[in-house]
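Q: Hi! First time asking for a complex rather than a single chain. Here are the components, and I think there are two in total. Is that enough to go on?
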Amino acid sequence: MHPAFSVIFLTTLIGAGQGLFLALYTGQIYALANLLPAQGDEFYAFGSLVALTLLVGGLIASFFHLGRPERAWRAAARWRTSWLSREVLVLPLVMALVFAYGLAHWTGHTQPLFTLGNWLAVDATLLIGLAATLAVFALFVCTAMIYAGVRFLEEWSSPLTVVNFTLFGLASGFMLAAAYSAFIGNQLVAFFGTWSVIFTVIALVSRFASLTRNAQLRHKSTVQSAIGVRHQTVSQKAQGATAGSFNTREFFHGRSAGTLRTVRLLFLFLVFPLPILLIGAAYATQSPTLPIVAFAVQYLGLLFERWYFFAEARHPQNLYYQSVA
Amino acid sequence: MSQLALVIDLNVCVGCHACVTSCKQWNTSGWAGPLVDENPYDADPTGTFFNRVQTFEVGTFPDTETVHFPKSCLHCEDPPCVPVCPTGASHKRADNGIVLVDYDKCIGCKYCSWACPYGAREVDEQQKVMKKCTLCIDRITDLTLPERERKPACVLACPTSARLFGDVQDPDSEVSIAIRERGGYQLMPEWGTKPANHYLPRRKTRIYIDPEELIRADNPLRKEDLTTYSGEETLDDVTW
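A: Yes, that's all I need. Here is the structure of the assembled complex.
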């Protein structure tokens, strides 16, 4: 498939934004349980603003994917059958809830509304955060199912796609939370950094599993089943167009196998070992800048990862375009 | 319930592209707006087509066969491109089973093209919406046309009658009989999309002729003939 930058930025930006919100909310819950020092409301409010910025950035990027962006509102219509439609509904919901979460913190709506079991003081931010958390996970599923739900793209059509999208969002979001904490100089860098490393390591396992799966994949369709001629030797002589067509542009990455291998190596290095080393070094040296570098490096790696995700998928229609394939 | 479809006979298709040009001509002139071309007379021309003819060579030289393969939307009975459409622009007509795109609702997200294993859909580079074969819906439903012209442009244009058009759910239709009696098959049946369009396979046409059918070995006339011949034309010269 042709890797479109609009979709690469959409999926990576909202992934990091979702992860950042989950990191903030996790921090709040840990603080509630007295496992972490409590943070001021500004910490959550500004953190939510950063998460919201990423979500809005992703939304803006997604518009560049559309031929007719002015009609984008129509995309909410078919949520019963289309994962894309579901994403179009859940993304604004997540944005609204993250905004409400930040606003509730900013305006100080932190007086307990009621108390559960004499010890859990439930305030508005906790309730909004819980709803936002559910919406964030729903968004991970919707975004990933857009790809995992297309059964013809066998490289994507696997539960591993959903797992990977979620884990990459969590890893980069918690890494960003560590960078944010380092930037404002609070004590949560190690907490967010540790979780980020944990998610990064699990993501390495699941991404490796999907790479292995795809390397061993035997595609269902062949040129024989594509044109219905049962012969071992079938070669294409004409593709039905003087030069290119939509079919030769949309479904091919147009790069060499060497480029693909280089990109794979690059993302395997930039997403996994390098950010872990950088955040580890930041912990050892108490550096305020290294966590930011770690996030930047991992995000750059995720752009390469998503590019490879698209380029790796081979669509069955390519069987009709042998000279490009 | 009916399901209109094309049945394409690969045995007689000669790859002349008349279906391609007639399709383009009809559908670029219709009420739905042009099928746009980019750089049509320049380097790297490209454009929107509903129908394309591809050519495959089967076998190894000198034992090869050339297969011309017209390729358009197959109007699947279970079309995977329809449920993925977020706007409902992509739909399957209930009355005749034709899969269509509402160009006024399409947002050009291309998701339906990902969900079509046949690559039957193409984005119009200027109108920025997804386009595909309509089976000339504006023509086959136009009651002002005489009935024999209420067929897709490609079917009327085909000089070898390689393209049949009709209802594949009617067991007595021309297309159903062709599918049944001439080995009609579907493309990529492994996906369970149940394409309505079918293809008729290449066939070797062989007749066996016994030498005795050519030479009348036991000509009864000659056997019982007592005549003495002296070079003139005889009954044998006239009959065989």
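A: The longest helix of chain A spans residues 5-32. Let me know if you'd like any chain examined more closely.
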